[in-house]
Amino acid sequence: MAKRKTFYGVGVLIGLSLALTALLSLTAPAPNISMAQSPTLTPTISETLVGLNQLVVDETCLVPCWLGWSIGEDTLKETQQKSRRNLGKPLWSVQDGNYTLLGLNFEDQNPLWLKAWVDEADNKIVAGSLYVEFPQESYVDWSFYSLSNVLTSYGEPDEVTFGTPFPHDGGLLNIRYYSKNLYLSYYITDPTINDEQPGLRICNDVAYIALLRVWVQSEPIEETPVITSEFWYSLYERDPLEYDLGDVTDLSVRTFTDLLSNEPACISLLPAAAWPE
After folding, report:
1. How many CB atoms lie within 10 A of CB 90?
2. What is the pLDDT of residues 23-48, one digit of tens each?
3. Smallest Cα–Cα separation from 162: which of 263, 228, 251?
4. What is the pLDDT of residues 156-215, one digit of tens each?
5. pTM, whole model, 2 decimals?
6. 258: Cβ–Cβ under 8 A, 6 or more apart, which residues?
7. What is the DSSP string of 61-85?
8. Nearest 5°: phi and psi at 167?
C-alpha cells in the first residue's frame, strides 16, 4: 500500500495542452489508462449534455442523491433507466472487480467522464465519480461545484487539505465530507502568483478551477483496477503528502467555510517554501 501511495505524487493526467498535463501530473489519474479500460461513447451534445446540465444545476439533489441517481439505493436496471430518461441514452458497461462499472465519456470539447460503480452482490449503485477539465469552458454549467456553492450546500467540511503548489501556477485543494461520503478535489489556478507574491490564492469562483474531481459513495468500496489506475482513492483516502489547512494558513475550517461561502472571495496560502517539512 505504501508503495502504491507514492503514485499520488507521480500520477500522470492528460489535459487539453502539454502544459496542463505537466502541471497536474501530481494530482490525478492518467486518463489514457481510463480510455484503454472503458469503451468511448460519443454522445450527441444537443440531447445528452443538455440533460446532464439539468441534473447538475438541480440544487435539490444533494448526496446521497447525485446527478439523478440515489447512491446506495438504485439497482443496475434503475441506474440505466434513469440514464436513458435523463441523458437520452444508456451508459456503457464494463466489469471492474466485483462491480459493474457504468460510464459516459465526452472527448469532443473538454474531457468529462462520469462513472458509477454497481455492487454485483447487492445489485446497488455504491459509488459515483466525476472528472471535468476546465469546467468554466464546458457546455455544462458547473457552478454548483464552485467552492462557494459546495460550502453553502453542504456546510463545514470534515477536512480541508492541500497538495504542494506548483510555482507560478496553482495547487491542489481537497475537501472531504466523511460524514456525507462526499469528496471533492480541485486544481486551483492563480494567475497572480509570482516570485514577489509567491503565496497561492484560493478563490471560490468556478473560473479558477482547472480540474474538478468528485467522488461519492454509500459505503467503503473495494479498490478496483479503475479506482487504482485513475487514483480515485486519493479523494476518499488522505495521502501523507497532504497539508492541513492550519499548516498553510491561519484559518480554521469553520473560518475557511464562512469566508468562501460568499462570492467573490479568496484566501491566501503561505508561500510553498514556508510550508512544514
Report:
1. 15
2. 343 344 433 323 333 334 344 557 88
3. 251
4. 999 999 997 776 678 899 999 999 999 999 999 887 766 666 678 898 988 889 999 999
5. 0.83
6. none
7. --TTEETTEETTT--HHHHHHHHHH
8. -60, 140
